[in-house]
UniProtKB/TrEMBL annotation:
<dbReference type="InterPro" id="IPR007372">
    <property type="entry name" value="Lipid/polyisoprenoid-bd_YceI"/>
</dbReference>
<feature type="domain" description="Lipid/polyisoprenoid-binding YceI-like">
    <location>
        <begin position="51"/>
        <end position="175"/>
    </location>
</feature>
<protein>
    <recommendedName>
        <fullName>Lipid/polyisoprenoid-binding YceI-like domain-containing protein</fullName>
    </recommendedName>
</protein>
<dbReference type="InterPro" id="IPR036761">
    <property type="entry name" value="TTHA0802/YceI-like_sf"/>
</dbReference>
<dbReference type="Pfam" id="PF04264">
    <property type="entry name" value="YceI"/>
</dbReference>
Length: 183
């Protein structure tokens, strides 16, 4: 809730009050790394997102420590050795959905979000393809993309080079509800 409040406050600063905003407090974000020795999977179900269908503005935020791994040792290494989660606690995307979407009509809309992805303290411009689905007034969004560790200065020691891929697959799934400031 804390992060959604921060995102909303930032959005309210730049957007006119009263515009329809949609929020998601439990976006699911999967990480997958395939390497010769082992595959590594992690999931967070606490991502926060805000979408403004009028302007196309889209924001995501996830706490790095919220990712859960099958092996606790992997999770410890992820947070302390690679992501430095105490120093860089969140990954954030701020951008715009380029295609206009009529949220009053049910349908599946291919979309492209352009913006900045900040991971490990390094921001990179990204163009992320995805799908926005409107069904019975419910908006959901899915996206899948690759992130190179080197793009965000995430160093992989040579001793574990065969354990961790140079690029991580990221899958995002979010279902939105209309923002109600009284909730």
């Amino acid at each position: 809730m804390k992060y959604i409040s921060i995102i909303l406050l930032a959005w309210m600063t730049f957007n006119r009050a009263g515009q329809d905003l949609y929020v998601c407090k439990n976006a699911r974000i999967n990480l997958f790394s395939s390497a010769p020795i082992e595959d590594i999977k992690a999931v967070s179900q606490t991502g926060a997102s805000v979408y403004n269908p009028t302007t196309g503005q889209l924001g995501f935020s996830v706490t790095i420590r919220s990712f859960q791994f099958a092996k606790s040792l992997m999770q410890d290494h992820f947070n302390s050795d690679y992501m430095e989660s105490d120093k860089y606690p969140k990954a954030i995307f701020n951008g715009t959905v380029k295609e206009p979407v009529d949220i009053t009509k049910d349908g599946s809309y291919p979309i492209t979000a352009e913006g900045s992805l900040s991971v490990h303290g390094i921001s990179q411009k990204r163009t992320i393809p995805g799908t926005l689905v409107v069904k019975n007034g419910v908006i959901s969004m899915e996206a899948s993309f690759m992130v190179k560790c080197a793009d965000h200065h995430i160093d992989i020691p040579s001793i574990v080079f065969h354990n961790i891929a140079e690029s991580i697959k990221v899958d995002v799934s979010a279902t939105y509800t209309k923002y109600n400031p009284t909730n």
